[in-house]
Fold each of these.
Amino acid sequence: MAIIPDTLTGAIFLSIFDFITCFFVLYFISFFIRALKFLNKEPKSASKQD
Amino acid sequence: MVIIDMFVAMAKGTGIANFSLAHIIMICFGILFIWFGIKKKFEPFLLVPLGIGCILVNVPGTGLMDVGGLLHFNYLGIAAVIYPPLIFLGVGAMTDFGPLIANPSTIVLGAAAHLGIFVALIGAKLLGFDIAEAGAIGIIGGADGPMAIYVATKLAPHLLGPVAVAAYSYMALLPLIQPPIMKALVPEHERKIAMEKMRPVSQIEKIVFPIMMILVVLILLPPIAPLISCLMLGNLIRESGVMERVANTIGGVFLDVITVFIAVAIGSTMSAENFVNMQTLMIVILGLIAFCIGTASGILWARLMCWMSKGKINPLIGSAGIAAVPMAARVSHMVGIQANKRNYLIMHAMGPNLAGVLGTAVAGGIMLTLLGVI
């Protein structure tokens, strides 16, 4: 069932909510992506061994 | 007398007797698409079959689009949402998500460049479309053909033809649409900014990324499962390094063939009877507005990031935030290299470009949830 009413106000509300949520969801996902770099082996310790 | 009747019957059975001005206009559009594809080389894989589909469906009397006709069977590929996930599978297999992993801060450009979706949605509502139709029209601004088809199929299946045609046509015409907006909004000195080289991304990061994205995105937004899961499966096949032949096939020949099928199917929705009306014209205009506003909002957000980073980000990568992979990134690179011949923006623009795919999926997923499709 649709939560948003089929009116102009509904369309504006949907647009603003969707746009802002889209920002936050992608920003949230970026933290997971940032965490990926911790999967790498530490390059500095490797260079010290060299 | 019988012979004359036979000739009359023959003449009535040809296409000529049933031609109307609308058919001729649509056939001219088909020829125009083919001309753009072959002569201008704008996405020929897309525009040439799209043009052929358009011509085929507008020759009266062939019955190709009637139930049981060849084009009808092909059309079921988009109506039953079979082709869009397959396209995403191929796109995943040919896409290196490294630029996005290396520079995750540009992911927000994938949201910023989607303002056009919402402006078009409100515009469609003002023009008298209902809210589900407005949502399907708005998603054109995401510049993601498979997602536009997917959302339109769920929200307003009767608008699938014009929505898909507008989305794919504008995606193919991005090199004409975006550069004037980019040049108008980004001053010359900012267009010349050369961005720092990105960090290398290891294979383990690239393998974990698709698995992580399937879990995170699908837990947050289950309605977009068919597309995101196929995109990430294709990417995992590529990055695993143990299915090179499969990855090359689904990211190459397979993707090209499905693109031809989907383009013919979209072209076959462009029949004069369904297409030559005010509603289609409004959808096409709203789609163009959505693309232009999306490009502008991405650019302006990237200018803000440029200012905040003290000139480390070239604002031209902002326009790549609308999906259209990899065309939008190529356009950013093309405009960048016109300002500074040593400016190679392609990999930097791929980050926001891939974020745009996720952004369209998220925006579409939220729309489907709030409009009660699931």
Note: The radius of gyration of chain B is 22 Å.
Amino acid sequence: MKLFRYGDAGAERPGIVDAEGKLRDLSSVVTDIDAWALSPEGLANIAAVDAAQLPEISGKVRYGVPVASVPNLVCVGLNYTDHAEETNAPIPKEPILFNKHTGALCGANDPVWFPADSTQLDWEVELAFVIGTPCWNVSEEEALSHIAGFTVLNDVSERHYQLQREGQWAKGKSHPGFAPCGPWIVTADELGDPQNLDLWLDLNGTRVQNGTTSRMIFTCAFLLSYISRYMALQPGDIVTTGTPQAWALARFHLTS
Amino acid sequence: MKPGDVMRLGITGLGEQEQQVVPLTDDVVAYWRTAHISRHAV
């Protein structure tokens, strides 16, 4: 299933893409795409509905963040082999974790706001997954069963804030609008293998990132298991898994 | 990036995004406050 939220910012409604690719309103089935809707019971409830019978959404659609009230947005740094190669950085022995404030989240096609004193605004296409059931100390073998679905996230960063304003990375990662997410969540059963997906990003029509999740250093299953040793993940949490080549720190000749 | 730049990105099977970089102005902040685009509203 492809699940999304649509409408004006702050007043989004739940939606689903039907088998023909038409957008349908889901508000007669669930109140929102939230922690309950993304639980195994909630997804089964939605799957039991004939989406083609739901009201079709007409006109131009604004997609909101595909999950309501995201509790936590956990990020992984330097997680692609090509990314490490281009920076001559050693392959990390363990995943590098950091957080973006959830206030950075916005819809897939919302504008990215440029702060007046920004000098190094930057982009990173990333595969993200959404937690469906609580997980703490889960094994790698069971990890994927805790994922409700997958989505696209642009990890927008202001590198000067991130690396030259003292402290940790949060300042450069958390500005409102620095985490476009969506347009929808594709449920884990529909996506299949998350380690064989192509990712790309064009800037002004020029391809600047082109990678594959097969070159992740740490797989989604490993990451979820690893992260769950250090924090209890909650339904609705989003974990974004790092970006492939053309890493900004190399472009800006910066070091972390 | 700078204002006016456009990003298009996607992942196989997961759809595509497009964002334009726009200057952060007082009007944008006022819009944000009105729309309640915050962690409690997204």
Note: DSSP finds eight helices and 16 strands in chain A.
